[in-house]
Design a protein that fits this description.
With about 60 residues, the chain is an all-alpha fold. The protein has helices at about 10-20, 25-35, 40-65.
Length: about 60
């Protein structure tokens, strides 16, 4: 799918294209896009849940060794 993004100039367009060519940056932009419609409190709840899940998975992996 293609979309149009308004930019201030060619340099900004090139920088955005370069950034979105990176899979990690592209994923980050998608996460931010998913979180922005939420309230600040909802965003905090989601991020705390993700942080807790990562910590729990790390602990489980370390206990399994």
């Amino acid at each position: 799918m293609k979309t149009t993004i308004e930019v201030s100039d060619r340099k900004e367009a090139d920088l955005i294209k370069t950034a979105l060519d990176d899979p990690t940056t592209r994923a980050f932009v998608q996460v931010v896009g998913a979180l922005l419609p939420l309230t600040a409190r909802e965003r905090a709840r989601v991020m705390n849940f993700v942080s807790d899940k990562v910590d729990e998975d790390r602990e489980a992996a370390n206990n399994g060794n």
